[in-house]
Specification:
With 221 residues, this protein is α/β, with parallel strands linked by helices. It has six helices and eight strands; from the N terminus they run βαβαββαββαβαβα. The chain starts with a strand and ends with a helix. It binds D-xylitol-5-phosphate and zinc ion.
Length: 221
Amino acid sequence: MKKQISPSVMCVDFFNLAETIAEFERQNIEYIHVDIMDGVYVPNYTLGTDFIKQLKKHTKIPMDIHLMIENPESKLDWFEFGEGDYVAVHYETTKHLHKAVAAIRAKGAKSMVAINPATPISVLENILDDIDAVLVMTVNPGFAGQKLIPSTLGKISALRKYLDKNGYENIEIEVDGNVSFENARLMSDAGANIFVAGTSSIFKAGQSMAENTAKLRDSIK
Ligand code: DX5
Ligand code: ZN
């Protein structure tokens, strides 16, 4: 599976956003990761519906929308997304997971189910026909700058094996949280192929974004 990078824009210097997006395009970045938090499911607020609308006006790079909101199935129409975009809903936030992922696909986008570090992969058993990817949270959702939870590395490889053994070789695995250059290598070897890049890699201080991107691509190849 193609190894792809999805920078987390909640980690960006917003006073330099336009230049950052232009650099993403120069670096052929595959997705832009947009964290949406409701202050309920996670104790934080980040970006919103209008930010996504604006972003889609300024770049052709597909969106990778990470919904950390309660009852997402009733709020999907608030967001602008479609062909080529990924939308992730958390397994822990809805009583109607199938309804949520079906609604995402109905809008022409690709569906993703996110699972927290303590949520077992077995919860995915009856939803695999309806999703295009699984987002394995490698930290507890809600904040950037956290440290990797080591047990999630074994979870990534167990998931990859489980998917391949059951005929779901096409389902991608995204990882999110402390995807540093070192951790990215371990996550890639474990079977991940989409890497949410934040404070510990693409936006790491001390090097340019071009240098950080090249270093990250080297880690995941
Ligand atoms: C956290 C978010 C992540 C976060 C990643 O809940 O989902 O996307 O921005 O930031 P780092 O890479 O610093 O862990
Ligand atoms: Zn995220």
